[in-house]
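Q: Could you predict the 3D structure of EGF-like domain-containing protein?
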Amino acid sequence: GYLKFHLFLFLIYLLKKAYLYNISINNDVKTMENLADIINDPLLTNDVNVNLFNENYNIDCNGKNHLYLHNSLTFNGKNNTKINFQSSDKGSFKIHFSAGSYNKKLIFNNINFYNYDGTYVENSGIVVGETEEKIDQYTIEFNNCEFYDIKAMIINIKITCLKKTQSLPQVIFNNCKFKNLNEVFQAYHFESFRNSINQEHCFSMEYRNCYFENIKTIGELYYGDLAIYDSYITNIYGSEEFTCSFIHSSAYNNKITIKNTKIIDNFVTLNKPFFVLLGSFLELENSIFKNCYSYSNYLMQFFGRDWTSLDNPNMIISNTEFNNINTLVEGVCNSIKITDSKFHNITSRSSTPIIFNSSTSTIHAENTEFSNIISLRSSLFSAESSLIFSNVKFNNIMSNSFSLIACNIYKSSFSNCSFESIICNGESENSSLLEFKSPTYGAELEFNDVIIRNCKSNGNLINVKGNLTTLKFSHLTLNNNDSYGPLINNESIKSFITFDNLNIYNNKNINKFKCGLFTYNKNINLTITNSIFKDNIIKNNGGSLCFTDIDSLNMKIKSSLFENNYGINGGVMYFKQFNNHLNENPIELIDLIFKKNKAEYFGGVIFSDNEHLNIQNVKNVTFTENYAYAGGVIYLNNENNEIIKNDLLYVNNKNFIYINNTAESHGDNYATDPYVIDLINQDIYNIFNRTIKSGDSIPLKFNLYDEFNQTINDASKLYSNLGLKINILNNNDSNNYKLYGNSCFYSNGICDLTNFKIFSINPNNIKLNISIVNENNKILFKNEIMNVEIAKCDEEQIKITDKYNYYSCEKPICKENCPILKGTAECIKGNKENVNSIELNQCKCLPGWLETNCDKRDLTKFNNLNKRIIEDTGFIKCELVLFGLLLSLISLNFNPFENYNSCALEFIFKHSGIILIYIIFTLYTQAASKLGLNLQNYNGTSTLQLSEPYKENSFIQSSKNYGNLEIISSSNRNVKFDGNTSKMQVNTINSQNIANKNDSMSINKSEMDSKKLYKNISFIHSLTLELCIAYIILSIALIIIILILKRKDIIYVQQYNYTWSYECPLRSLNLGIFSFESLLILFLVINSKNILNYTYIFKCTRYIIYAGMIWITFGPLIDLISYLAKYDNSNVILGFSITTNSICYFIIFILFIWDKVYYILRHQDNNCHNYFLAVKLEKCFIHNSFNCKCNKKQVEENDENIKQYIQFYKYNTQIFTFSNGRIIYNRSKNAL
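A: Sure. Here are the predicted structure tokens for EGF-like domain-containing protein:
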């Protein structure tokens, strides 16, 4: 069977060869003139092959190349065979397919056609074909042909078929080139009405792997189908004589297919598009449109058939790239399907949509990308189109239009789409990414798995308008978008909105005049489930949701998270006043978390300016770490007070869980506007029924409270425009009163009227009214009426009357150094009325305060340190004497015959104590000797005796003030002692200005002049300093000696009873020191015996002299005798020494301390006469002298002079003084 089949084919081939007629054509003139006749004769009976062996063939200008195809005809050229029409239109091939046979073919192979000019002949062309019968079984085919410099069309076909029977195209161009042409083809049906509708599809043309360049238009397809495959089209520039520059298809159902074709660098400088398609079908597959422009601003004018048919689109674009083009489609009623395509690098200045401007159309796009697009005036698609997009990407787009995408028709949906890096920078507040406007009958916008990321809009990102709108958003992600308005702004009259699985984070609404990320108006039915709103920032109110201009609201939010969102008021939700209060407006909140949201001012989560929130169903709602200035979670700003009380119920709902929410002003969880004004601490005194003096302050401070009775702190002064003012209620008497400081405004939550004063002409009763400035009818005021009684001034006050007869009661004022403010003194008014002067008023210490400046407390006496008998005689001296006695007694507890340590301790304690006692006793006696007065030499003029030469102009002057002493001499030096500051001030004065003062004492010089006094003072000062230094040196020396002698060998001596005792190496030194100490004490007693006759000395000085006598008898002298008398019996020595020393130091202790203890116990310790000897002799009136031998009575000096002399003593025996918290060394010259 296989052999028979191939044999059959071979026979057919032989038969065909037998009937094939070959003709070879030369390029001579005669042959070319008779070309048609040469070919037509054999065509009657045979298929004819015309072989063109020459390179050039010139068509005769007078020739008529009418070919009648009874059979098939083939022209075979060699490579580069050229047919030259010699710029004429006479030599075109007019093809007539005769009746009878079928499947006739006209084929041109490897021929170049050029230089044809049919400018003046309508519809002229190189090949003009027609058929006798109404069939489609014929073929005109061009293979490897070129057409250039043709001023006419290439082929003009008159179609007569009425039925499709042939599957192959009727016209085929394979591997052909078209350059510098007017038109490639024209195809039309001989029955003109069929040029409007193509029902048969019995004619088609095919261009495969062709090249088109520099052509006015490709063709006019009045009837038939056209396919262009694997071709390249460039520089198609159009012409006024043609409707368009590419293809004009006028018949309904014409089909145009362009596959694997590149249409690049075509620029039509006419107001004509590339394609004009009327009711046709266009398919673009795997092709490229690049750099294609027309002055018409669109490439295709497409009038479709049925825009609602997604299953039967009239335009299919698949796997096609559009790069730098005009608007692709301008038209109406189109159903366009786009798959796997790309639109990019497009810049448009046109006011029409830049991709598809096809109204009343449907655009269905899948797996398509729109990128790198700049729209300066318009949107991407016609607003009258229904957009059905799936897996479409929009990125790197900039638009200056009102909206990048506009939808004003029945339904649009976006599934698995993304919008990234899109900038909508059109007119402020009128530029958006998408605008959806529903018609009266309603429309639906659906988002499913849509991502909108890194986009910026100069208005609302998505605008929803119209009458009846349905929004279905599922798995929508809005991330890192900035808009000058909400991300979704819904202004539709009625909306049904379903949001599910939204991820809304890191978005910003930077418009200070538009609220929310999602803003709703009119009638809203809203459901939000399984969504996240996070890290969003709103420069206005509502960090996520904003409800304004609401007529009705039915809202349900379930299983969602709102975290770290920010708004001015309402960190998550903002409710403005509803327009219609009759609607139910139910709100359900179920399984929600509000976390770390923040409002700049009010409501960290919810701000409600609406008293008709109807929160019906609340379950498991948690508010955690939210913040606002007031109302960390919820803030109610309602105007109707009665309704507010109803709304307060839902904020305390048990299903609302509040955790660590905070507010700066008030209401960590919930708060309202200021609701009540009330007085702070009004329970302290009855401020509203008060008695005052004229001019007194009435300290008033008023707090603000919200309706939850929470104090409004208002640290940022948001309520600073709210204030209070006090006026007189009985205006008839207003002229008798003057109010000062009677108004205030709230600051830090307090209205401060602490400086409020009332001045009156006469004492009276008045009523005051407290009113609110900038009154808000929501705020209640408690106790707004005050009853005030204005009383007379108190006895201790000064009544001051001004020129208008208003009086005030003032407290007396004293000098600045009067410590009234410290609470230690009071100012006593002077005797002059209506005058409050520091010169007339007196400063007086309050009980419990002492000294001139009232800065010393009169402390409870728990010890005797501040007793004057101790303080004046010298507290430190007393303590040092007692310490010396203690050291001496402690030394008795150590046995010098036991070991070196005991011997050393006995040595250092005993001698340190003896020397210390001696130094203090010496200071007492020397001070008395130098500053005291021998009573036998008393001359009656002073307690101090000054030398004769200075009697006339020198004196010691004491003022009344205890603690101040002036020593004045003619040497113009004024020595002033200030006991309060312990400081000597030396001032130069004029001796001529010296005068006696009242209540002062003058001390004339008698035995000593002033220089001798200065010398004595200097001696005391120097002696004190020298003895202190000597004691320190002696103590150090004793320690060094002890350390040195410790290194000697240990020696024990056997005593008379055969026991052994330690021989201390300090024994010899001890004997020497005891001798020295005995001499010192003896010198002290002898040198001080004259003091027994002195006056102006401390009495204890006398006791010290008596103690010295005991000391010299039973003190170191006994120790010395004991050591020398019986050394070989240590027990006897030690016992005798301890006994005599104990008696000695006990007697010294008694003599030194008895008077202090005695007078303290008798509470006479402050009587200076008890411890200071100051007596003087009466004057002998017989001899008019103090120094006569008559017996004269001794008289006590007055207390004031004694106290001043004591202060003089105290200062001159001090080395250091304390002043202003510092220790000051007193030099001897400063002491003067």
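Q: Anything worth pointing out?
A: The chain has five domains: 20-296, 569-672, 676-809, 811-858, 867-1232.
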